[in-house]
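Q: My labmate handed me this sequence with no annotations at all. I'd like to see what the chain might look like in three dimensions before we decide whether it's worth expressing. Could you predict it?
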Amino acid sequence: MGWVQMSRQDLQRIEVLTEVLAGRRTTVSAAGVLGVSLRQAQRLLARYRAGGGGAMIHRSRGRPASNRLGPGVQEYVLELVRQNFRDFGPTLAAEALLERHGVEVSRETLRKWMVADGLWLSRKQRRSFHQPRLRRESYGELIQIDGSDHRWFEQRGEPCTLLVFIDDATSKLMQLRFVPSESTDSYFSALQGYLNDHGCPVAFYSDKHTVFRVNRPDAMGGSGMTQFGRALAELNIEILCANSSQAKGRVERANRTLQDRLVKELRLAGICDMAAGNLFLPSFVEHFNERFALPAQKTENLHRALHVKATQLTDILCHREQRHVSQQLTMAYDRKQIILERSEISEKLAGQYVEIYDFIDQPLEVRWKGHLLPYRVFSKDQRVSHTAVVENKRLGHALATVKAQQDIKHVPKVMTNSAKGGYKKNPRRLYGPDYKPKIAAAPAVEMTA
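A: Here is what I predict for the chain of 449 residues:
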């Protein structure tokens, strides 16, 4: 056996056993220090006494493994991987080699061979690095928005979503709101609070959620713009979508911080529902910003005043769609059949388009060129339809809605033919000493002359 470097364990054993031979330490104490049994310590001492320090090196060190594969197996396996499984990972490639070629190679051995040959990159080598983006220079120039689905009230309440608006230049929390899920109505409510508190920013920065972006360029219906995008366009606010979560890392990191700090603050305050949580959030935001907000590089505030009346803002922050009026003055919307009341205006609308305003907390309105059209609704079965497409972020809220509908669903009562004919059961008659039978009146007899 050639020259072999000693390990730290070997050097420690030599030092301790030297003390035993010198009489400065007992064999029992040496076993405790080395972490071996007394019998093993006695064997090591005998080997050291007979062969010196070199005897402390493990006898298998530096020798080839007894279960090693043949010299040509590695090249044969790598050739099979190059030809047939080039894009396979080590685990799947090892399974395929055994099933298709009868070659058994452990996953870790194959991983080492593939890494050395350049057929596989380790996890460290596959890491992608994102160039950090500098903050915007002015307050109100770019507002990052996102929703964080979390059990904010722990086990005291149901899980919900927190909508987070954060300024890119200062990391200042601009708006927080607890909502059931990330939906257009939820963002409309949060946006209304933001506009009333701060005004109109230059742009919002979001992910590719369907609230903000039409993800199907070949969509047949609509104007290529979501309801939220349409509202921002009317308010002269831009909406930009990030290509990755790292691009809007400021709001992502804020979500992680809030999932730690805010959850504990809600626990200390004894809050267990969204209504109480939304009342608590303004004071939390104030204290949070006092501690963590940073000054902007430029002192100018790019928020613009909201020159929109409250009624106009309500008309903007709602669902607005056009619907075709049939010859019977009807139209379909949200699984409802809307029937226009006949009037001098509605009689002329057959074959034309009207605009539907679906508000968050107000009754639906049908308008045509500024005229409010009265209507009545023939509602279809209002339920989440079978095979409905539900996004992951709204799945929890959709299931809660389905459960609530199932709890109040009434089982229809099946009527018998007798009941349909008007048959009614007569109560049981009790006969006794005071029983007086009813005497039917004699039929009237027509007198003839």
